[in-house]
Write a structure and sequence with these properties.
The protein is mainly β. It has 2 helices and 13 strands, in the order ββββββαβαββββββ. A hairpin with a 4-residue loop joins strand 9 and strand 10 (about 130-135).
Length: about 180
Amino acid sequence: MGRTRQVAVAEIGAAHGLKGEVRLRSFTATPMDVAKYGPLAAPDGRAFEILSVRPAAGTSPHMLVVQLKGVSDRNAAEALTGTPLSVPFERLPPADEGEFYHADLIGLAAFSPGGEILGTIVAVQNHGAGDLLEIAPAEGASMLVPFTEAAVPEVDIAGGRVVAVPPVFDDEGEDA
């Protein structure tokens, strides 16, 4: 039987205080919802249950302070720093119309509006100005395409493809 597809929903940050709380960066659209998905799995197979959650004061809305079951002191909390946490894809609610999970996009074939194969989506990145699809061609460097309706006019999850308008550069390598 195949492995269940896991989706990253958070990453443990630094220890917070002395009683085992940790900062948690939530990847969910509504940050506090990370606590609704049941036990969160670490890559090494450990499962973590969130006992309490609150927003971290003075930081990004996606930064939370959580108490994890079985983590009761600062040393245990510090040992978890940088641990990614995931849940089985089936635990997530269906995406709304026009919305997509990053996990659904990764692996899709990308085609130009004229039907030329551009490559495969290998990542969805966000550096603060919106999502970018990283498309890796069969040869050469990857390209980043803004994940907007203008730059990606068609997404066909069931068909395993997207249509993307590749960036156009002038002779000096700058966006035209």
